[in-house]
Amino acid sequence: xxxxxxxxxxxxxxxxxxxxxxxxxxxxxxxxxxxxxxxxxxxxxxxxxxxxxxxxxxxxxxxxxxxxxxxxxxxxxxxxxxxxxxxxxxxxxxxxxxxxxxxxxxxxxxxxxxxxxxxxxxxxxxxxxxxxxxxxxxxxxxxxxxxxxxxxxxxxxxxxxxxxxxxxxxxxxxxxxxxxxxxxxxxxxxxxxxxxxxxxxxxxxxxxxxxxxxxxxxxxxxxxxxxxxxxxxxxxxxxxxxxxxxxxxxxxxxxxxxxxxxxxxxxxxxxxxxxxxxxxxxxxxxxxxxxxxxxxxxxxxxxxxxxxxxxxxxxxxxxxxxxxxxxxxxxxxxxxxxxxxxxxxxxxxxxxxxxxxxxxxxxxxxxxxxxxxxxxxxxxxxxxxxxxxxxxxxxxxxxxxxxxxxxxxxxxxxxxxxxxxxxxxxxxxxxxxxxxxxxxxxxxxxxxxxxxxxxx
Length: 456
Description:
single chain; alpha/beta; Rossmann fold; pyruvate-formate lyase- activating enzyme; CATH 2.40.50.140; 6-stranded parallel β-sheet; 14 helices; 19 strands; globular; metal-binding
């Protein structure tokens, strides 16, 4: 280890918490460090430097981030690593408090400063602690950062924009990530082309709101134009869209999805609630009836589409009637995928100061009711697919069930939605897109068998 340190070359372990956008940031950090001669490792106990990329969106995410920092700080306390670095949203919001409470951390880095990590790492000295937290608008994805060998999968998250311009009253993201700023269309196409040359079959487009893409840079919504360019890439098989704001799901975008077979019929549309008083208090852009009309239009235009949404339970002022409307909405709309989390009052947000905060026990009761409704819907949706032949992208051997492999349908985003368990056939490879006959569903997962061999 001493030779590596003298040469300013380190073994680096990066731990990523939070959403896929953080995953992209971690890949950028690794690429930057790799370009400067540092090497990634999987085992924290073998790392000279540990980087923790934190999430600070809600209280549970903050707790997970702090627990992870404290756990990995033991590696430094025990002399197994030289430097401990913490970056991400939690640092951007709480740098001073973290520096005061976590003396084991050598470097705190804001979301707009991750491009400075190589030079800051080179300047670190034992016992000297640094907090570098500037304007989050200082950074935007750099498609010239090299890909790290061994870290490229058959799918990749592609961040098309950074920051957020929306004014949801419960959300701290704008203060952590800055204003919305789009990458150029050319840089995104270049990145995805480079990824496909390295074996990526599925590009998952992410941003805080992908439907706003391009408006700041080109004066109009450019997601349809971007998709039209991406579908031309020969080796790209699937394009998945995450985080679509409902009021910007234009007819042009929906028709593009309908006409281009490479674009998964999968839309993640975070709605957060359906009761008009709650939506107004949240600062959301659409009311109940407009939302229902939009979802019906999508279902009509895109038969077989998988709709995913997320909902906040127990927002300040949410009455029993408001919550009943949400449950009825779930029953009526029959979302294929839905996530729920209880409201967390975040310091600095307007919602944290609203009256009629909901007691935690009421939030938890309502959460369990919503989960029960959605579980019944999911079980019924999954059962309807038994006997169907469905295209599936192969993710590899199952970590849970020996002898089985896992794959995903177009309706399943990695690490978010479900999987299909597959009895492997000869020559099956990670990244293959094959037809699977669904034989049965169990515990909200599907099981099936290969209906044709890859390449046939």
